[in-house]
Amino acid sequence: MKIDSIETFQRDNNLALVKVRTDDGVEGWGQTSPYLAGQSVPALHDQIAPWFLGADPWDVAAIVDRCIRGEYKFYGTVLYRALCGVETAVWDVLGRSVGRPVYQLLGGTVRTSIGVYGSSMRRDITPEDEAERLTGLVESGRFSGFKIRIGSVMGQDADAAPGRTEKIIPYVREQLGDGISLRADANGCYSPAEAIRVGRILEASGYYHFEEPCPYPQLEATRTVADALDIPVAGGEQDQVLEHFHRMINTGAVDIVQPDIGYVGGMVRARKVALMAEAAGMPCTPHCANTSLLQIFTLHLAACSPSINQFQEWSIEDVSWTKDLYSGLPEVNRSMIELSAAPGWGITVNEDFLSSSTTRVSVDPHRRQLR
């Protein structure tokens, strides 16, 4: 079995679906990381596809390693976003070819019942309105844990609205009660001193983790916060380089590590971060902030990884560009998901998305000559 063609389906700049086809007719689906699809698709065909075309898909981990080393002058987010698209499609090929779910191929079944928390993406919402919609999700039976947004994105200590952070932290706790687990994400807003001050407010309200208190490149600042606080500090979603994750984990810069499968370049590399965390005795809770195929990828990673044992991120937002992208996503019931043993990713891509997309195909040049 050899990889014969790699085809992309791009409808807008948010994401592209990727179909990998082998010479014996097996097809698998993957997805580039959300956002920057207009840059990721050309990089996928020009720089990623040549490493995979004509190769045995069972060598996927070795191919990924060769690709990253071979493209060493092009380290950066677009390379990894594009790599994720091909690599995840290859895993679907492998699963479909042997009738097994991806998580069994990655490391075997650790769990198929996976806990998730409802993740708010909004800072343009008042504490009252946020608490009301989260309460509704509790009453509906969907979630028993949540994450809210505090501060502002890379905000240099500025709040999204005056006094919002100081109000929303205790208010949401008061309205939802002590039986609901809560987390807060600052998206790199704070200097160490301000992060510690806000962290004390989170501790007083019994929050479970404090995510990205400082700008993500500032590992030393984040470690200062983690050392000062009792609440676990989480981070890592923006990072792509495995050596950086190694430093983050080994120096104790974070208490919970959060690789994003799309940003880090796919399942092989995300699994390596989860294994680093396992060896260090650290929880891993992958970043998964939108309702795309990234949700399925993250569930499979959790299913095969001992270190991914906490509740995982699950967006509660209504995202228009991922609507009807695919079917087969499990339902959330009381913050739990039951993952099936269907082959590959266990999903079906929506034909309407494909028919409304712009396509591009890369073909194994050797096979092309034989034709």
Structure description:
The chain starts with a strand and ends with a helix. 50% of the residues are buried. Strands 4, 5, 6, 7, 8, 9, 10 and 12 form an 8-stranded mixed beta sheet that branches. A 4-stranded antiparallel beta sheet has the order 3-2-1-14. Helix 1 (37-52) crosses helix 2, helix 1 (37-52) packs across helix 3 (77-98) and helix 5 (127-139) packs parallel to helix 6 (164-176). It is 41% helix and 17% strand. The protein is built from 14 helices and 14 strands. By secondary structure, the chain is an alpha/beta fold.
Give the key terms.
TIM Barrel, 4-stranded antiparallel beta sheet, 8-stranded mixed beta sheet, single chain, 371 residues, 17% strand, globular
Structural class: alpha/beta
Strand content: 15-25%
Helical fraction equals 40-55%
The fourth-level CATH homologous superfamily of the largest domain is Enolase-like C-terminal domain
| Helix/strand order, N-terminal first | EEEHHHHEHEHEHEHEHEHHHEEEEHEH
- Tally of DSSP β-strands: 14
CATH class of the largest domain: Alpha Beta
Q: Tell me what the CATH architecture of the largest domain is.
A: Alpha-Beta Barrel
| CATH fold label of the largest domain | TIM Barrel
Write the SSE topology.
Layout: E1 3-10, E2 16-22, E3 27-31, H1 37-52, H2 60-70, H3 77-98, H4 102-106, E4 113-119, H5 127-139, E5 145-149, H6 164-176, E6 181-185, H7 192-204, E7 209-211, H8 219-228, E8 233-235, H9 242-250, E9 256-257, H10 261-264, H11 267-280, H12 294-304, E10 312-315, E11 326-327, E12 336-338, E13 348-349, H13 351-355, E14 358-363, H14 365-370
Parallel strand pairs: 4-5, 4-10, 5-6, 6-7, 7-8, 8-9
Antiparallel strand pairs: 1-2, 1-14, 2-3, 4-12, 11-13
Helix pairs in contact: 1-2, 1-3, 5-6, 6-7, 7-8, 9-11
